[in-house]
Amino acid sequence: MGELGCLLGEMDTLTNILKVEKKINLQKQLIKNEIIPLRQKSIDKWNEMYNYLLAKVNTPGGLGTIANLELHNLQGLKMLTKNDSLYQTILQGTLPEVQFQKTYTGKSRIIVPAKRTVIESNEDFNLKVTILSKNKVKEGKLFYSELGKNSFIPVEFKNMARSVYSVTISKNELNKMDFEYYIEFYLENEKIVYPSGAPDNTRTVIIID
Q1: Do 200 and 113 belong together in one domain?
Q2: Is residue 104 part of a domain?
Q3: Domain count, the chain
Q4: CB-based burial of residue 117 (10 Å sphere; 0-12 exposed, 13-18 middle, 19+ buried)?
Q5: Mean pLDDT (10-residue bins), the chain, 209 residues
Q6: Which of these three, 58, 91, 124, is where a domain ends?
């Protein structure tokens, strides 16, 4: 984010110089030779930052921050394109197309925003996950077992919207049983698991009255 801020600061400085320059040929040279390359570097840095954030985020707040960056900074403030109309007017032509990254290209991940470790005996266990991957999801399963028994039962995830999937284990199935679970998603070219190291590593849920 800091590197992107520096690039945008350079663009603002050059744009201020552009506005006071009187000679049209010098204005055009400034745009073509300095501003447009900086503009592309800023776009590339934004895409790099976007992928990095998606590769690290694990909470609803983190996902909300990324959404806010897109809605507020790109669409609202037009942080990277706010002076495009000025550049185009001076050049009397169009600028190179802006290509913001729309898809995740990093390592495939299972994000579990709400990691519930305790539930009451009169409630179902509901879990939502988000899948980040460039590969298409084929199916996903949660495997659960009575704590310490190592006898896992598979339950299939249902697709709720885009990359969001959910699964439910009813209170009747659990029958006040403390349990452990892990998750597997099968993609076009790979299998991903949660938590890391599953099935040897699992998550535990305690049921209380």
Answers
A1: yes
A2: no
A3: 2
A4: exposed
A5: 86 94 94 94 88 79 76 72 93 88 84 92 95 93 96 97 94 96 96 96 95
A6: 91
Q: Provide the whole-model pTM.
A: 0.73
What domain range is 177 assigned to?
Answer: 109-208
How do residues 192-209 score in pLDDT, each as one tens digit?
Answer: 999 999 999 999 999 998
pLDDT of residue 115: 87
CATH code where residue 137 lies: 2.60.40.10
Closest CA to 10 of 33, 32, 42: 42
For 159, other C-beta atoms within 10 Å of its C-beta total 13
CA distance 129 to 112: 5
Residue 172 CB partners (closer than 8 Å, separation 6+)? none
Per-residue pLDDT at 157: 98
